UniProtKB/TrEMBL annotation, chain A:
Residues 10-146 form the Response regulatory domain. It comes from Juglans regia (English walnut). The gene is LOC109011597. This is Two-component response regulator ARR9. Keywords: Cytokinin signaling pathway, Phosphoprotein, Transcription, Transcription regulation, Two-component regulatory system. The modification 4-aspartylphosphate is found at D79. It holds the Pfam family Response_reg. Functions as a response regulator involved in His-to-Asp phosphorelay signal transduction system. Phosphorylation of the Asp residue in the receiver domain activates the ability of the protein to promote the transcription of target genes. Type-A response regulators seem to act as negative regulators of the cytokinin signaling. Belongs to the ARR family. Type-A subfamily. One of its GO terms (biological process) is phosphorelay signal transduction system. Residues 149-180, 202-214 have a biased composition (Basic and acidic residues). The keyword 4Fe-4S does not apply. Residues 141-224 are annotated as: Disordered.
From TrEMBL, chain B:
It comes from Juglans regia (English walnut). This is Histidine-containing phosphotransfer protein. GO terms for biological process: cytokinin-activated signaling pathway; phosphorelay signal transduction system. The keyword Nucleus applies. GO terms for molecular function: histidine phosphotransfer kinase activity; protein histidine kinase binding. InterPro entries: AHP1-5/YPD1, HPT_dom_sf, Sig_transdc_His_kin_Hpt_dom. The modification Phosphohistidine is found at H78.
């Protein structure tokens, strides 16, 4: 699972049906997303680094980012009806986790039950897709991923009040060069990051005011 | 020769759609095929038949056990119906819906009767799709990947 292209979004798909996993994988890959599929909510949480009995306690070594492969998840798409942990249960656990709650979650279901749909949306799901899921549905995912992970330099410029308006990677390089040259100390004051797009995150925290309260790792979904 | 097979395959698909064996979902699957994934539809169908065999067996067993566990039945059928829907198997899906209605009313006889229809449609579609994919392979020419059989 290499991070070959930094600009690729990574989607975690959860479905107990092998057919539907195959389908969603093909749909997502067609849309140029990196995909990981799992067959249960429990496995999804494992992959996300969240353990059942541990709601992202910073003290616990097992959820330290350094112990886990650094795989970032930009969106979770899950089936509703699954044995054991339902998609709704999974959604709740994700939204209750301080490290995961900003990852957009989409629910899929073969049944059109209005109360189910509104319950999921109220709990924080971004979308609710009726199965079988189609390309037109998957095309709706990008804006949700863009919101929390600003990969598009243009969008980043619009929302980044600090930077000079150049593409993200260049401006960051320039800024770092400047800092190295003139203000060496400043580098150490930058928030501790594992990703190269630290400035984006900073800008996100400062500049934007999205619906939900942003925890410290706002924007980037660090998989621990 | 190749053109003839392609045309036959196309015609067969048209007919399967018109007769309600397949629906739009099947077309959607075909649209997901590309040079890197040229056999996606056949792979999906193969996976479906492999997977559904087990589900049908489970349903069969649940139907002969006494007393019948209708919740279990409903559960199995829900999954089977979902898979059928994902590959666009319309007639199969229809029978599943009828089955589910009987199941929710705990109507054993209705379930048993409908289940026969489910199996029949399931098998019938399999035969037709095998032919369909065979035509596709022939249309692609001798250099084409032989592929696998359906299920």
């Amino acid at each position: 699972m290499g991070m070959s292209t930094e600009s690729q979004f990574h989607v975690l798909a959860v479905d107990d049906s092998i057919i539907d996993r195959k389908l969603i994988e093909r749909l997502l890959k067609t849309s140029s997303y990196q995909v990981t599929t799992v067959d249960s909510g429990t496995k999804a949480l494992e992959f996300l680094g969240l353990h059942e009995d541990d709601q992202s306690n910073p003290e616990t070594p097992s959820v330290s980012p350094n112990n886990h492969q650094e795989v970032e998840v930009n969106l979770i798409i899950t089936d509703y009806c699954m044995p054991g942990m339902t998609g709704y249960d999974l959604l709740r656990k994700i939204k209750e986790s301080s490290s995961l709650r900003d990852i957009p979650v989409v629910i899929m279901s073969s049944e059109n039950v209005p109360s189910r749909i509104s319950r999921c949306l109220e709990e924080g799901a971004e979308e609710f897709f009726l199965k079988p899921v189609r390309l037109s549905d998957v095309n709706r995912l990008r804006p949700h991923m863009m919101k929390t992970k600003l990969k598009d330099p243009k969008q980043e410029n619009e929302e980044n009040k600090e930077e000079s308006g150049k593409p993200e990677s260049r401006s960051q390089e320039e800024k770092e060069e400047q800092q190295q040259h003139h203000h060496q100390q400043q580098l150490h004051h930058l928030p501790q990051q594992q990703h190269s797009n630290s400035n984006k995150r900073k800008a996100l925290e400062e500049g934007l005011s999205p619906d939900r309260t942003r925890p410290r790792y706002s924007g980037l979904t660090t998989v621990v | 020769m190749v053109k003839n097979h392609m045309q036959r395959q196309f015609d067969m698909k048209r007919s399967l759609l018109d007769q309600g064996y397949l629906d739009e979902q099947f077309i959607q699957l075909e649209e997901l095929e590309d040079d890197d994934n040229p056999n996606f539809v056949e792979e999906m169908v193969t996976t479906f038949y492999n997977n559904s065999a087990r589900l049908l067996q489970n349903i069969e067993q649940a139907l002969v056990s006494r007393p019948i566990d209708f919740t279990k039945l409903d559960n199995y059928m829900h999954r089977f119906k979902g898979s059928s829907s994902s590959i666009g198997a319309t007639r199969v899906k229809k029978e599943c819906t009828i089955f589910t209605e009987y199941c929710k009313k705990a109507n054993a006889e209705g379930c048993i009767r409908t289940f026969l229809q489910v199996k029949q449609e399931h098998a019938c579609l399999r035969r037709k799709l095998e032919t369909y994919f065979q035509l596709g392979r022939q249309a692609a020419g001798p250099s084409a990947n032989a592929g696998g059989q359906v299920g």
